[in-house]
Fold this protein.
Amino acid sequence: MAKKWVYMMAEGDASMRNLLGGKGAGLAEMARIGLPVPPGFTVTTEACNAYYESGGKFPEGMWEQVLAAMKELERQTGKGFGDPNNPLLVSVRSGARVSMPGMMDTVLNLGLNEETLKGLAKLTGNERFAYDAYRRFIQMFSRIVRHVDPAPFERILDEYKEKTAGKQDTDLTTDMLKEIVQKFLAYFKEQTGEDFPTDPYEQLRQAIGAVFGSWMGKRAVDYRNFHKLPHDWGTAVNVVTMVFGNMGEDSGTGVAFTRDPATGENRLYGEYLQNAQGEDVVAGIRTPKKISQLQQDMPEIYQQFAEVAKLLEKHYRDMQDMEFTVERGKLWMLQTRAGKRTAAAAIKIAVDMTHEGLITKEEALLRVEPDQVNQLLLPRFDQASKDEATKQGRLLAKGLNASPGAASGFAALDADTAEAWGLEGKPVILVRPETSPDDVHGMLRARGILTQHGGATSHAAVVARGLGLPCVAGTEALRIDTERKQFTAGGKTLKEGDVISIDGTTGEVFEGKIATIETKFTEQKDLVELLTWADEIKKLGVRANADYPRDAERAREFGAQGIGLCRTEHMFFEEDRLPIVQKMILAETDEEREKYLAQLLPVQRGDFEGIFRVMDGLPVIIRLIDPPLHEFLPSYEELLVKVTELRCRGDNPAELAESEKMLATVRAMREANPMLGLRGCRLGIIMPGITKMQVRAIFEAACNCTREGVDVHVEVMIPLVSHVNELHLMRDTLEAVAKQVMEEQNMKVDYMFGTMIEIPRAALTADQIAEYAEFFSFGTNDMTQMTFGISRDDAEGKFLLKYVEDKILPANPFQVLDRDGVGQMLRIGTERGRKTRPTLEVGICGEHGGEPSSVEFCHMIGLDYVSCSPFRVPIARLAAAQAVAREKAKVAKDV
Ligand code: ADP
Ligand code: MG
Ligand code: MG
């Protein structure tokens, strides 16, 4: 017996998403729980894959099963496919495992021809309706199944619309529609060289093939590449009995969410159109009405729909995005799926549903993507700057606030330009009359989307929300001239390439750039609450990398539990200090060097006191000087030019002498591989003065603060150790300084000495190193460089990103921790270190500390904490909690 390729709706349920696609599984589930769904069946994703395997042929037995399913549909509906007296019409809809909005199009009203058309007219007593359905079918079939250029169809329609009083498609008369149909059919023949297929089964065969074909269409492939979705999932094909929203004023079609997808507010949110079919709402052909208006227009339907919405939400325990049609006062559900939502909405909905008892705290934590937390903390426009722009007359227009956020950029009037500029790294705002799936490649590279037409559920709005981009839609005051590449609004004409700013939260569109400000974390009540739940379950500590007291303050506000990395060299770069640092480096005698170090001591002490005060009660890791000294001096090339110039001019012998001396020093310090040169602990060993001064500053600061009543926990970190003897030597020297200071001050400070593990040899010999270290901190940036043997600064621009694009590497290892290689260094280092010293504290402080997949890995190998930039602390808190929740649920995050 042939494999089962086709499932009637009654044979499916929500669990069969991979086989039936999201849409098919959703329809089956709705039918199963007794909601009104028009009868239908689904051709499986496996059939799609088999189609590709055989080079574009239906797999054996599939077509026969489709024919049998059609017979069953005829039985269920009491209609006949191709029966002129009582025609069965169907829609043919694609539907992959995850929803890919607008990626593959649906054909409605399939089964119509000159014969069945008459039957439909007679049966409904509505000839106009029948012709309207037919002209739509010809249009959709031609475009989607046969890839005929759709523009002439619209031109023909527009011609006729112009002749009516209302100028809408609903104003077209039956006679007009008849003429339109004839013109459409003629155009089809002209384009394809064939007559439009009249046999419904032939229509169906072609339509199913086209849905399969669209899976590998450019739009779909681009979308999957961007979202890193596999290409071998395939799409299912859903064949669903047609119900008609275009049968008069007691009919209509709509799209709604069970909660507001922009804010998360718990209310029905959506749009509908009376006397309309299918994609009319989404395509922005007429401006739709708010769903609340349905309450007035059809109170019973609204009531019923609201109940269905509640029920679906309860059933799926998540916010739903639903499509429905009303046919002559009867409600039909056509789709349900988890609704896409903005970051703010995702967080509010997760928190609200937990309070409503619908989901657990752990589920709530898994409902929010760490990246969404990032989005929420993204900058928004500064009100003062907006007011100023408004006063200057730069407020161009106000549209619909379709997706929140704010962005400024160069206006691009087509998707190709947006894509090209975006790839060049320019900020781009895509400006379009409306968007379609053909614009997605440009949308992916834009900072924001601005459209003239369409509502909150238009293509532009839906895609922008999915991508986390600000979008202003339905900006009717905008006049876009795509041919001349310009647009007018507010009495001004702007050209492509002019800078504009859009505020997707308010719908405002400005000429020029608007200043942005950061969102205050503590004002995000829902996020703050969600993250307290994260803290309840997470095992990893989350610390921040902070070099200055102001960073430390932000880190605490964001919930950091300490500082994992305070880089002392940044303090050396400050304007008032750099000259002293340079003199110290250039010093010829020890006494001279000591003199400058003595000048630096109080400055460093002040730095550390500032940080200790802010971090009262929490641990602070201070890393001793790490970079090669030449970084504090002018560049060799610059100096060479300067000395040459001074020599030629010959008018400033004093400056010349000083520059020559500097040049000689810099030349002497030059290294072929500075990152592998005299830096880190090697510097401390060759020139012990600097690190001794730093340790003195740390402990004097700690004593001073303790005296003030501050609770200090300091961890002194010695960088770039590769051999245990380096650490042994450094620690002995430096701990002596620490003890001396504490003795002088007659105080005890809670301290630890430890090291950064960033050289593979250190990880491999961690058992030896742990003899002299109370803590390890993996410097994963350097560790990645050294494990891969890749110089990051050189590689990212040259070949690394190409490696990622060509899938030679699964991800940029400087962003996502490489579990198989670098990760093993971390695992080995931790295990061996703890074998020697079970109380060893282990964390990481590279950029990976704020990247969710890397955080999960750190949890898996049992680290004590991750440390990341203050801004990423909330993300790391969530990711650390998700790691626990996922571990419980036994589902690993895909890397
Ligand atoms: P998409 O994946 O683009 O949302 P759908 O398959 O959901 O595509 O179809 C788009 C729209 O077409 C639906 O929202 C619905 O309005 C309409 N539609 C699809 N099937 C039917 C049907 N059997 N009867 C009436 N309308 C339908
Ligand atoms: Mg579509
Ligand atoms: Mg749909």
Observations:
- The mean pLDDT is 92.
- The two ends are 40 Å apart (CA to CA).
- Residues 590-614 form the longest helix (25 residues).
